[in-house]
Structure formats: structure tokens, C-alpha cells
Amino acid sequence: MANVFDPDEDLVLRVGRGEAAAVRQLAGLKLPRVLALARRMLGDPIEAEDVAQEAMLRAWRQAPKWKPGKARFDTWLHRVALNLCYDRLRRRREIVTDTPPDRPDDGPAPDRGLLSAETGARVDAALALLPARQREAIVLCHYQELTNIEAAALMEVSVEALESLLSRGRRALRQSLADLADDRGADR
User: Fold this and answer.
1) DSSP class of 61
2) What is the pLDDT of residues 142-171, one digit of tens each?
3) For the chain, what is the domain count?
4) Segment 127-138 mean pLDDT
5) Whole-prediction pTM value?
6) Residue 78 sits in a domain of what CATH number?
């Protein structure tokens, strides 16, 4: 396998040597994106924080053993976070309770800026209803801003398969949120 350019290589090697400044820098760079990914996948900010912390802990533990050139560190970290999210989602399906869980805050996410709280909640709800692989593809490409090639590699599918997942996910979101588009058209 050819060596892969990794912009994080030096930083990860420094973390592996135990440099405190490098650990802080890595956390500052990666934690917000991992947290956003987990929040989008899980829809629960508390669980998302737990996943993000666990992913960063694994990154810190893996850093001394990291072998540059095989894959980008960022890709590996996203895969770890996604696996942790899927573990949590599987556990949710397995737990049957008599009382409904507490509802997450329906307020707008900080990255939503101009969208209203209601619209943000509707988009989150529609995203949560997508099949897991479609949701994963949309989160990675649209929210995490990975390229199709990066997202396909992370999901271990071909670019064509990723594009199919994106297409089906977008179509389902458009159908779920059609009334929002109609309302915006009426406002103009």
C-alpha cells in the first residue's frame, strides 16, 4: 500500500512521545469534529460527549503505537467514533424500559446559526429517521465535510455506493422536509 499523506502525522507522533502541548493541540483540533459527528449520529448531547471523550482517549492511547503511512489519523479517529456511536445505538435497541427516556434539548445546535429552533429540530428528527448507513453518509459528507472519497473509505464502501447512499438519504430528507421548502417558497 502506498504511503498516505497525513497532515496530523507530526502531531500524533508528538502526542505519542507524551508532549502535553501536543495532546492539548490534538484535542483542540479533533474534539469539536468528533463531538459534532457523535451528536449527529446519536441525537443525544450527553451520549455524544461520552463518545467523543472515549474516542479521544483511544487516540491518546494509540498515539505511541501509531504507524504513519497506512491511513490518515483523522480517518482512523472518525472510524473509532462511528464504531462507538454504533455500539451505543445497538444498546439502545436492546434496552426495554417502562418509562420513556428524557427528551434531548430541542433547541438549535450552535452550528445552525440562522436556522430556527423548530427547523433545526425537524432536520435532526428527519436525519434520525434515516437508515443508519444513509445517515452516516450524510453526516460524514455534509456535516463533517469529508470528501466522497474519504467518506467512502471510512465507511468501507465504493465511492459509487456512497453516492447511492447520499442520493437515497437526500431524497428521504427532501420528502420528510417538503413542507419546510414549501413554507420558504411562500415567504419569498
Assistant:
1) H
2) 888 888 998 898 898 999 999 999 999 999
3) 2
4) 91
5) 0.64
6) 1.10.1740.10
